[in-house]
From TrEMBL:
Pfam families (UniProt xref): DUF1501
Organism annotation: Paraburkholderia youngii
Signal peptide bounds: 1-24
InterPro entries linked: DUF1501 (IPR010869), TAT_signal (IPR006311)
The entry's keywords: Signal
Keyword Signal among UniProt keywords: yes
Record's protein name: DUF1501 domain-containing protein
Length: 391
């Protein structure tokens, strides 16, 4: 019998979060309540622990990514774009992955891939621009903050001066969570960037093979940044070099962007291609991080402005919705299913899923257990970290 349990989280949304099956009780129908703060205690190692953020820009369709196939409402809501049961990758008796995510299965089987379901925030805003601002600043939906949540973290505890920079943003000119104060650079592509990024000469060659396309190229650039960390120099536009010598330490954060998730029409093929790019990129990233000796001190995390509506639209696509699942991986990740599975019988008045996990709980996991910072001060409220990490 598979083991499962639940714990109570004192988050802003007051959500119920499923503990991973490895920690659950023997009876799958019994609820065993635990204090989440005791479920995973991992001492932070500061900014020697790397964070890689992957923005799924446009809002990923969670229901076709992590599929609640055992719920008959799934196929009632998605008569045309629902994934056929025989095609999906089953994780347990009720949950499956989109078939394009097959490359992730070695990570799942090795228990280095965590999937947090039901992630969002209270009183969600369905504007791309406002909602990503909420995620970038870690604000409430009715609160307007200027600084990115990582900018506030680095203001509280600065990244050591022998790091080349606080962070590098690759594939987008938007600074996002590093906005308004962080020592960071935005590299749009190899020839167009905000500021100057100088890698070692020659650029370090990696044995890892990277997938084709913009996302694969972004991952390759990110890994070259890490490989060149001993001679990496970054110059912000109009400023002196941020650091003359990085002494073998590069950056604390890398943010990558995978575009195209605003799938209002003809979603099936588009979404499958996007998830394939994502999965292949994650596999290449893991291989490169292992090659560089960084896999065990790297945490990779997805985020997006929102998910999609459960009901397909008339254009065989999905419109802006609320919650979505997110992926967390790394050598010290406690892989399993977390959070609140989609409850399709409990849609709100607008036909959207209720929030199960406040996204700032994931941020609190980064700030507290991963980096050893005071997450409550940075996030301006207490959010319980999730038990995603191993010591």
């Amino acid at each position: 019998m598979k083991r499962r349990s639940f714990l109570s989280m004192s988050a802003a949304a007051g959500a119920l979060l499923c503990l991973p099956r490895a920690l659950a009780a023997e009876d799958a129908n019994a609820a065993h309540w635990r204090d989440a703060s005791k479920a995973s205690v991992v001492p932070g190692r500061g900014y020697d622990n790397l964070l890689i953020l992957i923005e799924l820009k446009g809002g990923n369709d969670g229901l076709n990514t992590v599929i609640p196939f055992a719920d008959p409402a799934y196929y009632a809501l998605r008569k045309n774009i629902g994934i056929k049961r025989e095609q999906m990758i089953h994780l347990d008796e009720r949950t499956a992955l989109h078939p394009a995510l097959q490359p992730l299965m070695p990570l799942w089987r090795s228990r280095q891939l965590a999937i947090v379901q039901g992630v969002g925030y209270a009183q969600p805003n369905l504007s791309h621009f406002r909602s990503i601002e909420i995620w970038d600043t870690a604000s409430r939906s009715d609160q307007y903050l200027r600084d990115g949540w990582l900018t506030r973290a680095f203001a509280m505890k600065p990244v050591p001066f022998d790091f080349a920079a606080d962070g590098v943003v690759i594939g987008s000119a938007e600074m996002g969570p590093l906005a308004n104060g962080a020592r960071a650079i935005a590299l749009v592509n190899r020839t167009q960037f905000v500021g100057t990024l100088r890698l070692a000469t020659p650029v370090p060659e990696l044995k890892t093979a990277f997938p084709d396309g913009a996302f694969g190229n972004s991952i390759k650039t990110a890994m070259q940044v890490l490989a060149a960390s001993d001679t990496l120099k970054i110059t912000a536009a109009g400023r002196a070099p941020m650091e003359q010598s990085s002494s073998g330490r590069g950056v604390a954060v890398i943010r990558l962007t995978l575009n195209g998730f605003d799938t209002h029409q003809n979603q099936r093929g588009q979404h499958a291609a996007l998830l394939q790019h994502f999965a292949q990129g994650m596999v290449a990233m893991q291989a490169a991080l292992v090659e560089l000796g960084r896999w065990n001190d790297t945490l990779v995390m997805t985020y997006a402005e929102f998910g999609r509506r459960p009901r397909e639209n008339e254009s065989n696509g999905t419109d802006h919705g609320t919650v979505a699942p997110h992926f967390v991986t790394g050598g010290r990740v406690r892989g399993d299913l977390y959070g609140v599975p989609p409850m399709l019988a409990r849609l709100d008045g607008n036909g959207n899923l209720p929030v199960g996990v406040d996204f700032r709980q994931i941020y609190a996991t980064v700030l507290g257990p991963w980096w050893g910072l005071d997450a409550s001060t940075i996030l301006q409220q207490r959010f319980e970290p999730l038990p995603l990490l191993r010591a």
